[in-house]
Each structure stands twice: as structure tokens, then as C-alpha cells.
């Protein structure tokens, strides 16, 4: 099934390490819930806030990637960036180092890849939600509204570990960010 999603990190791991990765992400999700509950409890907040950490996604602008992929860029808010960086740190022990691209001499990207097995992390992370494959002519359509998502925001309430297979992406495990 196709659902809108925001990729936090892409990592190559040996499938034999999958259960260790799942354990690491479960511990990460539990620690996030515990920290959020402690902070929110100390502020005497409502039950809804106590059971759900607030990691907001705020839209930035519509843009095109790869010439025909319409994306909604997401603002690089501190909560999202901390979430991204903590996931990276949680999974760095499981990186499969079988290949290292050269990145056309871009030393900063290569250094990131050599540390995290991805060149699209940290300062190069571009949070976005892919909307559709479209023609650039869409921008000329009088009904196209580039501000459609302005003023919207969403909270992250779960994240997924997915694996690419021959027929597409398969969700391996869902990690809730709400207390049970």
C-alpha cells in the first residue's frame, strides 16, 4: 500500500542484524516516550500531551526533486532534527559497509557516508514528503495552489522500519511513540 511518509534515514544493513536493529529502535522509542512523559508530567499538562510526545512536522514549500517528483519540503525544526540524529546514532553500529560511492569528490558528503552509510544525513538531510510524479507543466495550471499546505502541521506518533524487497517496500516493524 502507498502511504505518505517522511524518510528519517536510509541505511544498508545485513538482514541477519535485523532483530538487533528492531531491538535498538524499540529501546529508542521507549526512551523517547519516557523523556517526553517526564518533561510533560513536570509541566502538569493534559492527558493527551502526557501520552504523546510532540515532534512536529511543519510544511515549508512545494518543490520538485528529480525533475518530476512533486514534494512537500518539511521545515528542519529542532525536534525533527534531533529525532533524525538520534535514529542515526541508534543504528550506526549495524551499517553494512560493502560499498562506498565517491560523490564526485565532495569530501563533506563522502565523510558523512563513511560515518553513517548515507550522504543524506545531518546537514544534508532534506525532510520531505513525496506527493506525486508529475510534469513541470503542473505549475502552469491555474488550479495549482502552491500554498495548499500552508498553516498545516502534523505530529509524529509512530515510525516504521521498512525493508526494500523485489516488489517494493515492506514494513518490518512499527514503533509507536505513544505510551501504552
Description of the molecule:
This protein has 180 residues and is an alpha+beta fold. The protein is 30% helix and 22% strand. It has a three-stranded antiparallel beta sheet, with no helix packed on it. Strands 1-5 form a two-stranded antiparallel ribbon. About 9% of the residues have low confidence.
Number of helices: 4
Q: Note the run of SSEs as H and E.
A: HHEEEHHEEEE
Query: In order across it, which strands form the biggest sheet?
Result: 2-3-4
Roughly how many Å is the radius of gyration? 18 Å
Shape descriptor: globular
- CA(first)-CA(last) distance: 26 Å
Which structural category fits the helices and strands? alpha+beta
- Biggest sheet architecture: 3 strands, antiparallel
Sequence-ordered SSE layout with sheet pairings:
Blueprint: H1 18-42, H2 47-51, E1 56-57, E2 59-65, E3 69-74, H3 78-91, H4 107-116, E4 128-133, E5 154-155, E6 158-165, E7 168-176
Antiparallel strand pairs: 1-5, 2-3, 3-4, 6-7
Name a few traits of the molecule.
single chain, 180 residues, 3-stranded antiparallel beta sheet, two-stranded antiparallel sheet, 4 helices, 7 strands, 22% strand, globular
Amino acid at each position: 500500500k502507498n502511504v505518505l511518509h517522511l524518510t528519517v534515514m536510509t541505511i544498508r544493513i545485513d538482514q541477519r542484524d535485523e532483530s538487533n536493529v528492531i531491538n535498538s529502535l524499540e529501546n529508542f522509542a521507549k526512551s523517547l516516550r519516557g523523556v517526553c512523559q517526564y518533561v510533560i508530567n513536570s509541566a502538569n499538562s493534559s492527558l493527551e500531551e502526557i501520552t504523546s510526545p510532540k515532534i512536529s512536522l511543519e510544511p515549508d514549500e512545494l518543490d520538485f526533486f528529480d525533475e518530476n517528483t512533486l514534494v512537500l519540503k518539511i521545515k528542519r525544526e529542532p525536534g525533527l532534527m534531533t529525532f533524525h540524529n538520534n535514529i542515526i546514532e541508534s543504528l550506526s553500529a549495524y551499517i553494512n559497509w560493502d560499498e562506498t560511492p565517491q560523490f564526485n569528490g565532495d569530501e563533506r558528503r563522502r565523510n558523512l557516508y563513511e560515518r553513517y552509510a548515507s550522504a543524506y544525513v545531518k546537514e544534508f538531510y532534506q525532510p520531505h514528503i513525496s506527493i506525486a510524479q508529475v510534469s513541470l507543466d503542473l505549475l502552469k495550471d491555474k488550479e495549482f495552489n502552491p500554498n495548499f499546505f500552508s498553516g498545516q502541521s502534523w505530529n509524529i506518533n509512530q515510525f516504521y522500519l521498512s525493508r526494500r524487497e523485489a516488489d517494493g517496500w515492506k514494513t518490518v516493524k512499527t514503533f509507536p511513540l505513544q505510551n501504552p
